[in-house]
Amino acid sequence: MFRFIAVCFAQILLVGSVYVANMQGVASPQQPRRPYGVPEASLPCTPEEQTWWTELRAASEDVRYPHRPGDKQKKRFLTALRNGVEKSLAPPVPDARAVILWKTEPQYTEAARKREISGSVTLQIELLANGSVGKMEVIQGLPEGLNDASAEAARKTIFLPAIKNRQFVNSSVRIVMNFNIY
């Protein structure tokens, strides 16, 4: 009987510790964490690719950390990205989804502000392999020019394109732009 109680108690402790670990945000090995920023090089690469990737990572940090990155930081990142694409350098990381580094907030239109329109606009946008935003479709919209304001803001999105077989590829993501009047 004592052995049975000891085994039950051990199982309860094991289940409880797994639960606590999951509640504290410890990632399980089955679910890789979503990347936040440009990942470190993890695949074999040439010295030129390593130098380029290090420069790209540094430029992405300048875009991510300021509250509002300036044109200089944005241009540095896009120039580094496009230089690698033009030179046919292979990203030294495994397949990954596109990583949004900076999303510009949309501006209210005067007409929407007067009518006190609140809500969200959902856009399906194409993220091109060269670092620019392609086609855009409004999935859920708002009146008074807020769809156009959202599209204009989405065009300014800065991101690392999706990677497949060590090449940048086009991908599509949904972005939600919120409009709230306080």
Give structural notes.
By secondary structure, the protein is an alpha+beta fold. It has one domain: TolA/TonB C-terminal domain (2-Layer Sandwich). It is built from five helices and seven strands; from the N terminus they run H-H-H-E-H-E-E-H-E-E-E-E. The strands form three sheets. Strands 3-2-7 form a three-stranded antiparallel beta sheet, with helices on one face. Strands 1-4 form a two-stranded antiparallel sheet. Strands 5-6 form a two-stranded antiparallel ribbon. Strand 2 and strand 3 (133-140) form a beta hairpin. Helix 2 (47-64) packs antiparallel against helix 3 (71-86). The longest helix has 22 residues, at 2-23. The termini are far apart.
